[in-house]
Write a structure and sequence with these properties.
The chain has about 375 residues and is α/β, with parallel strands linked by helices. It has helices at about 30-35, 95-110, 125-140, 170-180, 200-205, 250-265, 280-285, 295-300, 310-325; strands at about 5-10, 10-15, 15-20, 40-45, 45-50, 60-65, 70-75, 80-85, 115-120, 145-150, 185-190, 210-215, 220, 245, 270-275, 290-295. It starts with 5 loop residues before the first strand and ends in a 38-residue tail after the last helix. It binds flavin mononucleotide.
Length: about 375
């Protein structure tokens, strides 16, 4: 029995693990290597029509935790473990006309693996809506299986792009209207976790035709400053800006966001992202309702794999299969969403005494 195979948003995945939109999926070479290693799919590094210009310094750093000081730092030290990635990298700098033949070759070489094209344009006028349509149609015409709309990039000054638009239900609907009118494939929408209106944004996206919500992109955050040198651990000319935290450090927050969406829309699909390094983290996303799992930082950090997680995917597949077999589950669908009803309001959790009034004891 093939316990790893899943159907998600109508697409057949040989296993539920895919590489998230990021450096591991930034080129044909890396994606082919990832498929050779066994990943079930990829979301391409986000493709746009606007040229990008990255910062004049490192785009990503890896922060590690240790028992000795400094506890969290990018500094190379003995006996550290991965804590997080921090990045301020923009979307792909490879233009669409280079991507298209590459995507076609990738799909022809690995027809059984799912290729989801991540795309991004602006908002607020017909020209930008046409850009979304153009990007989506071009990627689907060369064989991509689905589209992921990037409404979550945290590194944009432009107010009509990335995470800046994920609070605006009208814009979410208008982009989905444009894209669903252009292509007839599953549309995933990647939202930013950094909004108090996440459930509303997801609701608007589902209602406007999204097949799935992808959660989470990185969390807006700052790198640390060294008290001795007064330098940030990453900076350009002494300056830094809000970048994105990924990796283990965001796992629990990502699970909470996925749980919120899953509880609000139990029948809808969710692709879980944020801090997955092994089976246990993946398991947690599944029991909160995710039917597909995306990985970025852990794959990038794996040494000797060219940053695509060659050993990681073997381990993920082995450990998930072993678990399903031992517990006699036929697929992840049998455990998906199992934790949903156990996430409740504070008042539903038993108290030491019966006196609880939404935050304070009635007796006090
Ligand atoms: C260097 C870097 C670049 C990224 N670029 C993109 C991107 O172009 N588009 C996108 O949707 N997400 C991008 N992401 C976010 C990841 O896809 C993912 O959502 C995030 O890193 C959380 O997953 P993780 O904890 O497994 O790293 C990027 C992340 C990193 C670290």
């Amino acid at each position: 029995m093939d316990r790893l195979a899943t159907t998600f948003t109508g697409l057949n995945f040989v296993n539920p693990f895919i590489l998230a939109s990021a450096p591991p999926t930034e080129s044909k070479r890396k994606i082919l290597r990832a498929f050779e290693a066994g990943w079930g799919g990829v979301v391409t590094k986000t493709i746009g029509l606007h040229p990008v210009e990255n910062v004049a310094g490192p785009k990503t750093i890896y922060q590690r935790a240790s028992d000795i000081k400094p506890y969290v730092s990018r500094m190379k030290r003995e006996d550290t473990v991965s804590h997080s990635s921090w990045n301020w990298e923009l979307i792909s700098d490879q233009p669409l006309d280079i991507w298209l033949p590459d995507l076609e070759e990738i799909k022809t070489t690995y027809p059984d693996r799912m290729v989801i094209a991540s795309i991004m344009a602006g908002a607020g006028n017909d020209e930008e809506m046409e850009n979304w349509r153009k990007l989506a149609s071009a990627c689907i015409d060369v064989g991509c299986d689905a589209i992921e709309l990037n409404m979550s990039c945290p590194h944009m000054d432009r107010k009509d792009m990335g995470a800046n638009i994920a609070n605006d239900e009208e814009i979410i609907r208008s982009i989905l209207k444009a894209v669903t009118s252009a292509v007839n494939v599953p549309i995933w929408v990647k939202l930013t976790p950094s909004t108090a209106k996440l459930v509303d944004a997801a609701g608007a996206a589902y209602e406007a035709g999204a097949s799935s919500i992808s959660l989470c992109n990185t969390f807006p955050s700052l790198p640390l400053m060294d008290p001795e040198t007064m330098k940030f651990e990453v900076e350009v000319d002494g300056l830094v800006t809000s970048g994105g935290l990924g990796g283990l450090a965001i796992l629990h927050q990502a699970l909470q966001r996925v749980s919120d969406i899953s509880k609000a829309f139990p029948d809808k699909a969710i692709s879980g992202i944020g801090g997955i390094r092994g089976f246990r983290e993946a398991f947690n996303f599944i029991v909160h309702g995710a039917g597909n799992l995306q990985v970025c930082t852990a794959a990038m950090e794996e040494k000797g794999s060219g940053g695509v997680g060659v050993d990681l995917i073997q381990e993920l597949k082995h450990d998930l299969n072993d678990y399903l077999e031992r517990k006699e589950y036929s697929s992840i669908e049998e455990i998906r969403g199992l934790a949903r009803e156990r996430i409740v309001e504070h008042s539903k959790v038993r108290r030491k005494s019966g006196n609880y009034n939404g935050g304070y004891s009635l007796a006090s």
